Amino acid sequence: MVYLLNFIYSFVVDLTTVSIVPHGQPLSKIANLGVDSRVVVWIREFLLGRTQRVRVEGQLLEEVRVTSDIPQGSILGPLLFLVYVNDIWRNIESTIWLFADDCVSYRKIINNEDMEKLQKDMDRLGEWAVENAMKINPRKSKAIFFILKRVIVIPKA
Q: Which of 10, 79, 135, 152 has the maximal Cβ count within 10 Å?
């Protein structure tokens, strides 16, 4: 008697914030979506020209220009993040879902070819992260499989 498993293999991937991404990258993606150029200019003005300074042991340090990061706590922050990661699905054959900074990709596995396709998709996801200056947080990312049913095959004698 042989048991064949019919299951879904899933990856839950946690992406780090876009704080290491230069401002030009999200602006290019927004423009490539066909957003009105006036809106792109407005978002550029929102992102560019920002400065910050910190206080260390009571002393206020010199102001420095911010050339990356989407201001956290801003109204546009979550929207800009979603626009930035919205192309993560390109070149991925498995089903993929986005939830804030998490990505879930899954595929029904019936044979080795399905496993190979899923592995290629995970490789492509890693390549996308590198190309887009994102990092996958391994501590918060998980692989999960769900068994759908067991099929018993009794070989003919």
A: 10
Instruction: Choose among 107, 112, 129, 116: nearest CA to 25.
Output: 129
> Phi and psi (nearest 5°) for 90?
-60, 140
**72-81 LR contacts (CB < 8 Å, sep 24+):** 72/17, 74/46, 76/43, 76/46, 80/18, 80/26, 80/30, 80/43, 81/17, 81/18
The tokens for 21 are: 């991404």
Distance CA 98, CA 82 (A): 9
pTM for the model stands at 0.71
Condensed to tens digits (0 to 9), the pLDDT of residues 6-41 reads 778 888 888 875 556 666 778 888 888 888 999 989
H or E element that contains 96 = strand 95-99
Q: Is the pLDDT of residue 2 over 60?
A: no
Return the closest-CA partner of residue 80 out of 67, 88, 92, 71: 71
| Residue 7 bridge partners (DSSP) | 109, 147
